[in-house]
Structures are given as C-alpha cells and as structure tokens.
Amino acid sequence: AGMRVAVVGAGVSGLTATKGCLEEGLEPTCFEQSQDIGGLWRYTEHVEAGRPSLYPSVISNTSKEMSAFSDFPYPEDFPVFLPNAQLLEYLRHYAKHFGLLEHIKFGTTVISVRERPDFATTGQWDVVTEADGKQTSHIFDAVMVCSGSFSEPSLPLHCFPGIESFEGQYFHSRQYKHPDVFQGKRVLVVGMGNSGVDIAVEASRVAAKVTICTSRGAWVLSRVFDHGYPWDMVFHTRLMSLIRNSLPGPLSWGLVNYRANQWFKHENYGLQPEKSCLVREPVLNDDLPSYILTGRITIKPGVKEFKDNSVVFHNCPEEEPIDIVVFCTGYNVSFPFLEEAVVKVENKHASLYKYVFPTHLQRPTLAVLGLIKPLGAIMPMIEMQARWVTRVFKGRRANMSSPMYQNAVQTGHFLSPPCTKRDFILKTDCVVYMDKLASFIGAKPSVLGLLCRDPRLALTIFFGPCTPYQYRLGGPGRWEGARQAILTQWDRTLKPTRTRVPTGSSSPCPSLLTVVGFLLLLVALVFGF
C-alpha cells in the first residue's frame, strides 16, 4: 500500500497539498469541516464559527501571473487582480482538473492528531475525525496541516483601557460584511492591515467621519505600479531580488523606503512606519492616499483610552467623538486538534523549520503549510512547500531521517525569534525562499545553464517577473507547458485590460535597467552565482 497522508482543510493549502501527494504517488485523504472547498476564498453572507470570513469586496493583493499554481495558469480573460469569486472559481477549476475532489471528505472535522505509541520508529499518527456527530479513528503515515491562520480573531480588549464603558458598537473586522452599518456614523478603525484600510475606505463613502489609528504605521503600495504594471510583476524579479539581497541591510532598507515613498511621501500622510527591525508586510490599497488628501480619512496614533462615546489617542490631548469601532487587530494562529507541544506558538510565531516542519519531532512526518506572511503571492509558496513536504515524506521510507533536517536539529538552525535580520529577509523576499525550497527538491531554475541553451528564456527569467512557472522547468513535477507559460505571461496580463485596441506584445524592460542588469549578470558570473 502507498503512504497514507491526512490533509487538514480544503482551502488553497489543502488543495495544493492533496495535489502534491497525488503527484508523488502518496495517498491523500483531505478532511474539510464545511461542505465545500475554497477556505478563506469562499464568501458566505454569515460568519461561520471556526471558518475564515471575507467581506464581499475583497480582491487579491497579488496579480494572477504571480499567484497562479505553477502548472496551472489563470485563464487569459480573468482580471489581473482577482475578486474573491473569481479566485474561488480558479480553485474549483484546479480541483476539477487534477481530480482532487474524490480525495476530500466534506463535513468532516479533525478532532485530534496524536503521535502513535511507536512514533519514534514508524512516524505514524492517530487521527480522530467527526462527521454527523460520529467520531472515527484513522492511522496515517503523515499529516499536512492546512487549516490556515484566519479563523480565530485576535481581539486583545485588555490593551484598550475604558472599552467596557464605551457606549457605542464595536466588533472585530472578521464580522464585517457591508458598509451600510457605518451610514452617517463616526467610525474608528483600529489597526492598519489590509482589512483595516479596505474597511476604512469603504466606510468613508457612507460614514460621517472615518479615523484610522495605528501605533506603527505601514507602507502603502498601490496594485497599479510603475507605468500601470502590476506591483508584484515589477517588484519581484530575480534582478531586483539580487540587488536587494546583495546590498547591506541599511542600504536595502533605504531602497525599499525610496520605492515605497515614490507614490506619495508617507511621512506627510502620517503613515511612515517606525524603522524597526521587523518590516511589516505592506498594505495594498489603491485609494488610501487620495482619501486622506480629500479629508475622508484621518490617520491618528494608537489608542490611549476609550470614554463613554469618545476616544483619546496617544500624544493627542483632545477627545475624539466616536459611534462605532472596528478592531482590525488580526488573528491568532491556533491548531485546536494538535497537542501544544507539537507546534509551539509564541507571540503569533510558530517554531517551524523553514516555516514548515515542527522543530522537535523525532520524525518529520507532520508539516504545517501556509503559515508564512510573504511580501508577495502566497499560493505558489504554499504549493512549493507542498512539493517539498511530499518529497520529504516519501524519502523517509528509504532513508529514515533527512540529513538537512537532522543537521538543523543538531545545530539549532531554526527560525530565530521574530526580531532579527533573517526575519527581515524572509518577510521581504519570496524569490529567496522559493529558490531555497526549490533547491531542496531540484526544481530551481538555473539562469546560467539556460543562458547557453535558451537565451531568450534565460533573460525572461532573470529580468522578468519571477513567476511560479519557473519552478516547473525541471526537477520532479516538471511541466511541459512551463516555458510557453513564461514566454506568454505578459500577454495574459495585458489581454484583460487592452480591450479597445488590438493587443501587441509588450513587456516593461527599460533599456537602462537591462544594461545595468546585464553588467550585474556578468559580475555574478565572475563571482560565481
């Protein structure tokens, strides 16, 4: 019999994990507590317990070419940034195309996942699930945890003195669906993540007044970047990644700072983030600066305390009258079905090797997918995690311990605490992380190797956006269509918007950048790449 793998959840991570298992000849069983796939991306009008909750206007922050699974490009007529319904439609196509649905058990909740008594030798797990009020026990050779981190809201009311005496309404952003609750009200949005800014912008169209308070500030980027190209296709190229990572820390920070302030000077809008070692992922919003400029939204520092029907901010003497508060304070990572010892979560950080494997298991037969906050598209990263994990699971049969993992266990090379330079790199650079995992399975593209065989492809890979298809050019799971997908990526990007004039092929490659890049490539050649 093949190796049996339990997959917990059928959202983005669960689907690509199930597909990864099938690709490697493992036998996945995916357990999904609801009656349908899609996880976070499946909108429901009512907030359901234990499930993520979307508001109808959510649009993806990353463009379709950067967000696609590496062997399944988006249809060319889909918009470049995807409304949640179309992203869900894509996931449905993906599940159907790769025959994933027959491996998913719907309406089935995973109650517990425990090491078997003989775990040290077999690495097996006892999994208890519940469906229709009946519990069932299973034995699995490995487990992939794909339950996400957007189900348990973090609402630290103790950090907001006086909230108990506040007479207005307050709720967590998870509860938000439609802006009509804000009609004519004075609204305070606490926290400045993507949801906070989205909600503030929507509220300001109907509210009397909207204030966002943030203690840390944030970079705000527009999806519409240089010359109207999608931000991530300009930002995430191998050339840019090489430049960012070759520069010393402060210079690299300066570059990000410069880029972020090109659209508008954050300082003048009260948004400049503190220069702390922890660079938060930027907020993607196309409207915020213009809404601040037109007085619809005001930015304030963090909350000092609430009064009956007003709020006081730090360093601001006067009270601000408020009718309704939305706490956009994020989510807690929790795995109710695991024992605490398996994944230690401290201040929202889990101790996981390469963000995937719990660091102190005797056998690497349990992996957590999608617990990473990249500065870019998360779907291809989760897919890469799944491809790596399934290889590790498989390799375990022949060779009981993967040397790289063992080495890490001995030398303690795991995720350092949150506030370190390493974290800065990982938080900011998808290309580095993807390359690392790809090199573990032998799927990392070699620019130099291609330069001789296929110069056009090599240059597109180096100067163009680092699209996921690059990781299907070779190695296990190689896909015949990868080269073609890379060479046509700009066509699919331009097709949905060039609707009035015939589409010619054009990709942004300013000549100066090409020259500089070519010199850098030569330097890289000389110093070994």
UniProtKB/TrEMBL annotation:
Residues annotated as transmembrane: none
Annotated InterPro entries: FAD/NAD-bd_sf, Flavin_mOase, Flavin_mOase-like, Flavin_mOase_1, FMO-like
Subcellular location: Endoplasmic reticulum membrane
A single Gene Ontology CC term: endoplasmic reticulum membrane
SUPFAM superfamilies for the chain: FAD/NAD(P)-binding domain
Main location: endoplasmic reticulum
Topology versus the membrane: Single-pass membrane protein
Catalysed reactions, as listed in the record: hypotaurine + NADPH + O2 + H(+) = taurine + NADP(+) + H2O; N,N-dimethylaniline + NADPH + O2 + H(+) = N,N-dimethylaniline N-oxide + NADP(+) + H2O; trimethylamine + NADPH + O2 = trimethylamine N-oxide + NADP(+) + H2O; hypotaurine + NADH + O2 + H(+) = taurine + NAD(+) + H2O
EC number: 1.14.13.148, 1.14.13.8
Gene Ontology terms, MF aspect: flavin adenine dinucleotide binding; N,N-dimethylaniline monooxygenase activity; NADP binding; trimethylamine monooxygenase activity
Name of the top EC class for this enzyme: oxidoreductase
Alphabetic keyword roster: Endoplasmic reticulum, FAD, Flavoprotein, Membrane, Monooxygenase, NADP, Oxidoreductase, Transmembrane, Transmembrane helix
Family the entry assigns: Belongs to the FMO family.
Function: Broad spectrum monooxygenase that catalyzes the oxygenation of a wide variety of nitrogen- and sulfur-containing compounds including xenobiotics. Catalyzes the S-oxygenation of hypotaurine to produce taurine, an organic osmolyte involved in cell volume regulation as well as a variety of cytoprotective and developmental processes.
Protein name: Flavin-containing monooxygenase 1
Phylogenetic classification of the source organism: Eukaryota, Metazoa, Chordata, Craniata, Vertebrata
